[in-house]
Amino acid sequence: MRVASVITLALVIIQLADGFQIINRLVTPPQATSAGLKMTEHEETFAAQALFSDHQRRTLIQQVVQSIVAVPVLGCSSSASAAIDVSYLPQVTHKVFMDIRISRRDGTFYVKKPENIEDPTDEPIYAHLVIGLYGNDAPNCVQQFLKYVDVPFDLDSPNPSYSTTRFSTLDTETGLLIGGISGLDVTTLAGGNVLQYKGKVIPAKLWLENTKKEEDTTKAVLRHDRKGLLTHRNLDLTPSFGITTRGSSTSLDSSHTVFGKVLEDNDGFLEKVIDIPAMTSDGLVSKTSNEPVNVGGANAVTSSLFTAQRRVFRDAAKTFGDTRLDRLPDGKLLRRIEVTQVGSL
């Protein structure tokens, strides 16, 4: 209560000070202006100094307020931070593990004898991820995701499973690592879209969440604001998912839904995957990075707008089952990254 009162009082002081300054200027305008004459260079300088003085005054007031507020805040920092964490961090309701491997440059995984290893840095990489899912905040996405986790093995009639996932793309604009089940595609049947997997036809559903959360204040606001978040594209009919590899990818908030996060990555998978070379839309091989890509120099804004528009059309095409986009090399990773095993914990 004390902190809120101090902040409110400070805002009132600033607004009153600005109000008095505006009234004073309206009541006593400059003499040159009242006489209908153009302001001299000296008067313009004086007016500019007055504006600068106003800015200094407001800055000083804000600094004083911050110093006053800091005392009670520091005094109860532990309780305040605990309250914020409880209120805004999503609750993990389910845990899933994934075993992943990254191939050599030639795409192989087989074990070589020590004497046959030509480049020790070009050997397969193995990783184990533990993933937490937000069943309370993104229930539909979590429910759909879990359908492809604990899938019984059936050699004669296999069903789609995340155990056959391949991460083939690392988007150079957002840093999103995208994975999907191999052999699972969208096709058209009787005028509607369905999923097809090894001769089987599976209903295709969108993983849409209920966005009307005004009445439920206990749900966290899920944003792409950190590394290691699991997300799904809203218009994607397939169970593909992505993992953020950058500290902030908030441009995905409008088109994707966060439904989990990586809890454990002891093998440094997310750090290693961003160093894998990838093909860009221009056909150039480049190393991905952990920082946003600024393309086009002075035309960076135009490039960003074009990329956003292109993403919308590409997403729409995928929704309607256009598989020609799979042949485009934008962000195509030049190593095989596969999930070998998946299961619930």
Explain what this protein looks like in three dimensions:
- It is a single chain.
- With 345 residues, the chain is α+β, with helices and mostly antiparallel strands.
- Helices cover 32% and strands 23% of the residues.
- It has seven helices and 14 strands.
- It has helices at residues 2-27, 31-34, 41-75, 77-88, 139-146, 269-273, 300-319; strands at residues 94-102, 125-133, 165-170, 176-181, 184-189, 192-197, 200-203, 229-233, 241-244, 256-264, 277-279, 285-287, 332-333, 337-344.
- It has an eight-stranded antiparallel β-sheet with strand order 3-4-9-8-10-2-1-14, covered by helices on one side. It has a three-stranded antiparallel β-sheet with strand order 5-6-7, with no helix packed on it. It has a three-stranded antiparallel β-sheet with strand order 12-11-13, with no helix packed on it.
- Strand 3 (165-170) and strand 4 form a beta hairpin.
- Helix 1 runs antiparallel to helix 3.
- The protein is globular and about 60 Å long.
- The protein starts with a helix and ends with a strand.
- The model is unreliable at 25-53, 59-87 and 290-304 (pLDDT under 50).
